[in-house]
Amino acid sequence: MSGNTAPASPPPSTPIKVVVVEDILDIRESLRIMINGTEGFRCMGAYYSAEEAMEKIGKEVPDVVLMDIGLPKMSGIEATRQLKAHYPKLLILMLTVYDDDERIFNSLCAGACGYLLKKTPPARLLEGIQEAANGGSPMTPEIARRVVELFQQFHPPVQADYQLSAHEVRLLKMLAEGHSYRSAATVLGVTPHAVSFHLRNIYEKLHVHSKSEAVAKALRDHLIE
């Protein structure tokens, strides 16, 4: 992870506050330097362990946490679960080498808003942080496909009726296929703000709090195929 490539969209007026949790020093420092070297972002801290990060986060809560999974003591998945219990609005983006179904599933169930691999290019990683801060659920295309396949294995006994409109169902399907807010808005011919508005309605109807939860529930309850 290196380079200071800025994300495609203009940086926000207030920097996105990021915390990095990564036990490998070179990666941790590369992420910190990349984030602090890019306009619109600020790295509040870069920590070796989940325990250290959880202690520091209690003093000043960031906007987004970049969370490794394979940490020395407590795993990143368990840390995500505990952090979300204390700070429900905290956005946790998994950044890991693991791409197996079990860790993807457990991370999303723990409350992660997205899942990126460490081989993700710096520009895409910065875009993912910004997307998470804007309410999205960044995932690499291969991870998004795995999520779709994973949750299609669930078959509830009765299909629930959440009274979603045809437009909302179409938007959910697009998000399940890996579209970002921006790309979904382009395909639908609306603004990203309109997509965000419709997604808030979807959250309320499905009783969820993130895009990943909405997609998972929609697939599990066969609202989309």
Please characterize this protein's 3D structure.
The protein has a five-stranded parallel β-sheet with strand order 2-1-3-4-5, with helices on both faces. It has two domains: 16-137, Response regulator (Rossmann fold, 3-Layer(aba) Sandwich); 152-220, Arc Repressor Mutant, subunit A, CATH 1.10.10. It has helices at residues 25-36, 50-57, 76-86, 101-110, 122-133, 141-151, 166-176, 181-188, 192-206, 211-220; strands spanning 16-21, 41-47, 64-67, 91-96, 114-117. The mean pLDDT is 85. It has 225 residues and is of the alpha/beta class. Helices cover 48% and strands 12% of the residues. α3 (76-86) packs parallel to α4 (101-110).
SSE inventory with pairings:
Elements: E1 16-21, H1 25-36, E2 41-47, H2 50-57, E3 64-67, H3 76-86, E4 91-96, H4 101-110, E5 114-117, H5 122-133, H6 141-151, H7 166-176, H8 181-188, H9 192-206, H10 211-220
Parallel strand pairs: 1-2, 1-3, 3-4, 4-5
